[in-house]
Amino acid sequence: MGKLRTYWSQWRALSASRRRQFLKASVCLISIKLALHLFSFSVFKRLFGLAVKQVPSRSDVAAGYLDDTVWAVRSAAYHLPLSLMCLPQALAVKYLLRGLPGLSLHIGVQQNATDGFAAHAWIESSTSGSIIIGDWPQTVSYRPLWVWV
């Protein structure tokens, strides 16, 4: 009961906008996870592409919105009782920030993987060149196989 009380007090401490972002991220992550299980990746990719393209590009986003969205996706992925690794998180950020120009989804494989095959997904900003979500240690090197702009 103490853990539930802690979660409740943390929830109440959030601002209304952060609560909304957390709920949007939760619904988005659950929907993406479900769709990835229900559809082949080619069907999912086509449906997701349609959903992402239906929003006009915008550059009037409030300062901090990108960081708040990434926080919401990471927090929801951590707290939801599902395995929401890098791909669902990257897809959720790509969807929630679909109006922002210059964000691309990357899927890559680890080079020189000692433990066999390792894949990873991340979102990169073409304007700043930085990784928005899905960062990894500098000792690991991923070779992009697929980039979705």
How would you describe the overall organization of this protein?
The protein is an alpha+beta fold. The chain has one domain (2-148). It has five helices and four strands; from the N terminus they run H-H-H-H-H-E-E-E-E. It has a four-stranded antiparallel beta sheet with strand order 3-2-1-4. It is globular and about 45 Å long. 23% of the residues are buried. The mean pLDDT is 88.
Gyration radius over CA = 16 Å
Structural class category: alpha+beta
Basic shape: globular
- The largest sheet has its strands arranged as 3-2-1-4
Summarize the model shown.
With 149 residues, this protein is an alpha+beta fold.
Helix-strand layout with pairing:
Layout: H1 2-13, H2 16-38, H3 41-53, H4 65-79, H5 86-96, E1 103-110, E2 119-125, E3 131-133, E4 142-148
Helix pairs in contact: 2-4, 2-5, 4-5
Organism: Rhabdobacter roseus
InterPro entries: McjB-like, McjB_C
Transmembrane segments: 21-44
Descriptive key words:
single chain; 149 residues; alpha+beta; four-stranded antiparallel beta sheet; 5 helices; 4 strands; McjB-like; McjB_C; membrane; transmembrane; Microcin J25-processing protein McjB C-terminal domain-containing protein
